[in-house]
Amino acid sequence: MSAHTLPRRHRIRRGALAIALATCVGATLVSCSDGAEPAAGQSAPGPAADARLARLAQKAADTGSLGVIVRVDSGDGKPVEIAEQAAWTKDDHTLAAGDQFRVGSNTKTVTATLVLQQVTENRISLADTVEEWLPGLVEGGEDITVRMLLNHTSGLGDFLLTPEFLPSLTGQEKRTWTPEELLAITPEQDPPAEPGETYAYSNANYEALGLILEKATGSSLAELIRKKITGPLKMRDSYLATDADRDTGRQHVTGYEPNAGRLKKILSGTVDLPAGVGFAGPERPGDNVDTSAIDPSWSWAAGGMVSTAADWQTFLTALNSGELLAEAQLRQMRTTVDAPEEGGGYGLGLIRADTTCGTVWGHTGGLPGYSSEIYTDATGTRSVAVFSSTNFGIKDKAAATANKALVEAATCQMLGKPQPSDSPAG
What pLDDT, in 10s, does the model give residues 260-274? Predict the structure, then answer.
């Protein structure tokens, strides 16, 4: 049975799991907290707040995040860097704040930046249709514009949990997918929506944008990223992954996911997983598996970047301070559609998250074993990154609560606001 002919009941269940992977992997500030409420009390910025942030990071690691990297740059030239991990993960590696990490869908912000740079150069228009650039490749492409791809209002569904792709996502099947093949198995949005009508997050949108970029420029996406982003910004520890090889000369974070039995329990009530469905990898303590060998290259323009906290903060700072885009294009990027599941709105590859301490701009990311949130303030002066070495592991209620507290405290500290805390004493 194809993705297009699945009964509606099963399509909804599959879509719920796709959202858990693709959009709520790290959006703990508002939408993925499993009902956790902000804690009472405040902790003022300073050494005490730094120490409390480290304690929250260790608590998150021990509660289910497993490995945590936090980097807070308040714009004063003295970033706070924290790396904490569950004790048993030290047998695999000792975590450091500068480790490389699969930043997943944060890649979409890079892809969108490249598109908007081409808009500035009049090679691409936001009003161009997909059919003009990729004739015959996307069903209904004559009614879908570049803008709709960028802000996820195209009406396209996601290929992530289609029967054809799910075995590759979980690592049970080793296969190299092309963007064209992924677009060919992309189902319609459920429930169906006309192009431009509603926001619905889909990785297919950015697979199409990657192909448009390559056609418009005559360069590969990896070359464009090096030439336009990582090279000029001296992001020496960032690259577009083409396979699961981590031998880059720099330590790469090991990622984990719950095993099949624990995954089924965590997702109970969200999606009814068939028995035995789970991620491939060596067994690890606490009913976890090591997912580091799962090939992330399929995510490409939608999520294929490997980076570090410092490198990605460099990128987001340059973007939101106006270094990478003309003012008109940055304004377009920040023009959002309503996206409650993102905690605010979604622009052109950029999330506006309305947090307890103020509005921030950035994105979230997630791949098997990796989830991340990276934001700046409106001026790009201040930035924050929080990485966790699991994705579905922080969907567990206790883990989600601890992770939310960490992200909230780190974001408030980045904005120069008092941290929410468990008690007046912090």
Answer: 999 999 988 887 777
Q: Rounded to 10 degrees, what is the CA torsion of 14, 16, 21, 23?
A: 130
420 pLDDT above the threshold of 70: yes
User: Residue for token digits 């559609």?
Assistant: 337
Contact (Cβ atoms closer than 8 angstroms) between residue 388 and residue 10: no
Is 390 within 8 Å of 371 (Cβ atoms)? yes
CA nearest 211: which of 147, 137, 148, 287?
137
What pLDDT does 421 receive? 61
Residues 6 or more apart in contact with residue 51 via CB below 8 angstroms: none
- Do 127 and 146 meet the contact criterion of CB atoms below 8 Å apart? yes
Mean pLDDT, rounded, for 145-153: 98
Q: In angstroms, what CA-CA distances link 77 with 97, 184, 310, 312? A: 16, 47, 12, 16
Smallest CA-to-CA distance from 210 within 329, 105, 114, 311 is with 114
CA dist 104 and 296 (Å) reads: 9
Q: Cα–Cα–Cα angle for 39, 41, 47, nearest 5°?
A: 110
User: Strands of 305-307's sheet, edge to edge?
Assistant: 101-102, 305-307, 239-240
Mean pLDDT value of segment 325-336 = 97
* Cα separation, 325 vs 30, whole angstroms: 29
Q: How confident is the model at residue 46 (pLDDT cuts 50, 70, 90)?
A: confident
Ordered DSSP codes for 119-146:
HHTTS--TT-BHHHHSTTTSTTGGG-BH
Q: Which residues contact 393 (CB under 8 A, 6 or more apart)?
A: 64, 65, 66, 256, 257, 258, 266, 288, 399
156-170 residue pLDDT tens = 999 998 999 999 999
Average pLDDT over residues 122-130: 98
Torsion angles phi and psi, residue 145, rounded to 5: -100, 165
